[in-house]
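Re: folding output
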Amino acid sequence: MTYLIIVLMVLIITVVYHHVGYLALLKLVSRRAHKRIFPEGNIRKNNRFGILVCAFNEQEHIKEKLHNLGAMLYNTELYAIHVYLDGCTDNTYEEAMLAQSHLAKQNVVCHLHYNKQNQGKAHGINELITLTKSNYDVLLFTDVSALLSIDVLNKIDIDFKDPDIKVITGVYVLDEHATPEQQHYWQYQNNVKSMESSLGAVIGVPGAMFAIRSKYTDILDENTINDDFILSMKALKNGGKAVVNSDINIIERECDEQSHDYARRVRLGAGNWQQIKILFELFNPRLGWVSFNFISHKVLRGVMPILLALIYILLFSMAFFSNLLLVKLLCCVIVAVHSLFVVKSTLNIKAKIPIVDKVNYILNAYFLALWGIIKFERGDYKKHWERVHDREAEPNVSIKVIKRIIDIVGSVVGLTLLSPIMLLVAATIKVSSRGPVLFNQLRVGESNDNFVALFNVLKFRSMVVDAEVASGAVWASKDDPRITPIGRFIRKTRLDELPQLWNVLVGDMSLIGPRPERPVFYSKLEKDIPYFSQRTYGIKPGISGLAQVMNGYDESIDDARKKIGWDYAYMLSTSSPRSWFYMELTIFLKTLVVIFTGKGQ
């Protein structure tokens, strides 16, 4: 227990350092740092700028963006705009051509690079870098959704008079429609970046606008997630400075809705994890503040979801196995904080709870990031980048996000608290019958218009080894002779399902949802039961579910036919947060009844 307490304290100290200690250290050191002074007045502006923009389905903003860039108070002979149109399916190209002809009258050069297929932002950036790197002194990267002040090139040009500066960005300002949580997050980020800037070591830049000396830009791996971060930090791998010009405001017009913000958090979590692997060379202590800030800011940010998950596991384990009052109180506080979030979200309660809401936003962001790490390690991000707003809108995104948070927390807590029971069941199976403790079986998971997921479900073995060698794939019957004595008990109490908590943690399943069916039965079920395959459309299958607690295990097609109504009833409940929350709670309570009364089959 002493060892666990030491590990827990180290983890908590690391979390506190990242969120409080690092900021306090920056404040102390940045006050002593010398302010950068650049000469004003008649300085010959000799930097040639290539302004690079990637666009995918931006018909609403592309014309305004190009007019904004064409209005720069800078010698039009010393800058040009390059727009990469990445397989747009709307009128972005036509709108860009109209703006291009208008800019030509103002002697502003605007090149449109059109690609028929959407190949992702990283591919577009690489194409633009390849085309422009040798023609300009500075490459300025900017998003279509961001507006820049017309003197931005002048200010960047002045800053680049310092030969040690390799990367420059500005202050990121969100639209007034941004959520308070997003506003607070970026106020914090701008504050941190300002202090890092005084040390010449800004860690990460907003993709809305940043400039790099062209000779220090590197080609990206096309699976890169956070392209802006990788580009800016790779420029510093051999030394140099990255700074924020506080006189440059970057206005972001397109703010995420809450559900889109959640999706972005998942992707950022994966990106932060990927950055640690790609930018390993920044661990070099010779880079000074760049290396120190990178480790304290981004490396710890990348591993923070894992650290928090470990803290949760240790706390709940110690609360379960020890009599430490403080640990039990902390666990109660954690449960209360998360419960308030679930209740407010499902019942659509708008009342603010100042400290609790902020803590929930931060914790939820980290658990979403943990899901991003898991998805990254599964290989989900090997396909190219898509903007959050351009993905086909899924119904009830907020419910899916809340369900995923509940699944992650529930599976972690479940695996921790139920581990003694799982070990006892495993030992009993091993002693009582020949064969492995666990078995896995291919099942059908979540589906949509583009794919049907297949995964291997984990269960405690409840039947004899090679139960289907003679009969082939068949449903289990009520008094099935293939079921072992201990198997009969664990099936009645549903203890055989406990290993599926791992399937939930990695995202194959949910705690509650339709039963995952075997592919071998699918062709007959789809033939005999209309719309059978739609039961998991947009929904992950679950360990428990309405059909499972109302009907038990399937023994025949008639049983599957009866269950389909329950599955659709569950799907209909997701049309409203209130009805879904009531349904979820009902299924949870009925599941407990099945477990403790042994009414499972």
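--- second protein (sequence, then structure) ---
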Amino acid sequence: MQEISKGANVSLTALSEDAGAVVVSLGWTSATGAGDADVSVLLLDENGKIRSENDFYFYNHPAAADGSVQLLGKTPTSNGDEDRISVDLTAVPEDVARIVVAASQYGGARFGDLDDLRMTVSDRTGEPLVGYSIEDAGVETAFIFGELYRRGEEWKFRAVGQGYETGLTGLATDFGIEVLEDTEPAAATAESTAESTAETAAVPAPPEEGEATAVPAEATATAPEAPAAEAAASEAAAASATVPAQTRGRAPRTTRKKVTLPKVAKKSLAENESWRTARLFPVPSLKSDKEREVRATSVLLSVMAQVPELGRRLTAGFGAPAGRMQTFTEVPLPHGDTPKRPDGVIRVERAGKLWTALVETKTHGNPLKDEQVQQYMDIAARRGYEAVITLSNDVALDGSPVVDVKIDGRRKHKVSLWHLSWAEVAHQAQMLIRHEGVGNAAHAWLLQELLEYLQHENSGCHGFQNMGPAWVPVRKGIEDETISPDDERAVDVVESWERLIRQVCLRLGGELGQKALPVQRTRRDSDPRTRRALAAAALCADGKLSAELRIDGTSSVMAVTADLRTGKVRTSVDIPAPEGSYPLATTKRLLRALAEAPADLHVQSLVEGENGPRGTLERLRPEPGDLLPKDGAAPTGFRLSLIKGMGNTRGNTESGFIRGVDAAVDRFYHGVVAHLGAVEARGGRRG
């Protein structure tokens, strides 16, 4: 990878033979774990201005209709967060001269508070081409990291590093975007709702011969009835022609009308609960692992082909271009004496060129096999295919694959290996149908049917469900105090814990429509293996697994601790006290904000980092003064905690450890964190 400095530029064509599509990554770390920024992309004409409001892409307008730009969202790395953007340069309209990549902060935060600010451009295989680190960030609240620009027939990259103290407003105004100065939440109007409901739902066209079909032979299903389509359309996003100023917690409106499904289903017409709703993808008859794999592959691939938003969302990060997608299952491919049959094949056509990926699927906790994936990598390399995608309940960490394969460096054609978890598929489907919207009601209905299928107990697509073979001996060793701090099995448990926390973030983020990510408080040059070894030593010493989560829209970091000795899961958050406020008034305000919180919530005052008086919410409500230190010292903040028992199994039953952690995080967020907006706003940002 070539490193360049501020102001320098480089030709992408000179760095890679295949620079038609790139993935741009913006990364940073934060010592407090609370630092974050929102990425945005602007398409500019020769005059340096946007052509229309649709040329501005941000968290509520994440993708271009032509597939040229797509925000892929945040990914946890070994030392922080990384925001990725897929840019298909072959799909960029000819009258676009520059593509500006920027980020902005909110709530008074500055880029100087973040560490390791960096931008990287990779080719479609994930191979880094050029990188640029920003060393001089200070009081800026918005930053242009870099830009892609045309020079004749080629695209070049320039490291810009220009900051704005005026935040998103100043940046947007420079490029011709009209900015709303009000801060009141935008509401959908009756007119926009009427326009949305006018969209008609069409039955997706049947797949062509040879394509994957998601409807089993034994199932007969009809198109969504008119009421269902109307209910889906009634939640369509409102239209607007402006971009908001530096606001947070509101959903900016764009000129693109989208369809989402209502969060609350209409009242059932069934006579009693024994009547089962007809499903497009039935699963009760699935009995064997092979049946689950075949059905799950066919269901997913067919929906990807019929719903462009999902197909593009799941493949853009793997280097696929924006184009016509077709999907296939059980395709025989020559390999030695016996042909091999990958579970699926994805093909995307654009401008006469084909992008092809082989898909290997596992369900119900079955592990991927290194040898099998290696064979598909070899087949793909010989046939000139671009990628192999593994799909299972396992969750990848640090963007790395979950199988061990060897890449023959002598081959000119490179094949990229990517991993996708079923939890990520469900997350993306939920984001589209609940929060971001899709093109029409039929697509929303198909995504809802896919989600129902994935969440069914018989589908085998439930996500990460097993802490691995090291879990039982490590837990027993901690209980008996016989485990050694350098036991390699403890490192395996720490890695499984990281996968679990990543999946908890995916589920919670999909439900809330907000970004939820694990917090890593390490520097960019830190080694993940070393970090896990330190966490494993701490696990052996005190018997605790710990993690921190950051949820967009909240200024605090949620801590999760599983104590294997006591069998308890503790979830907690620290809330800073407002400066200059009266301690008793602050305490009363906090308890009022927690009126709907569980009575067993533990509240503790913090005095200059030390622990002060504490008690349960039930005890403190009538006597808020009991939370104040007896010596009259003013609390600097408060720690809110919930404690829940965890299961003893690997997570295969309702009382399992994995489900226990997931339930603890869910209860704490909805019962506590969701009510703290006003308190956090007064207390300011942490760190």
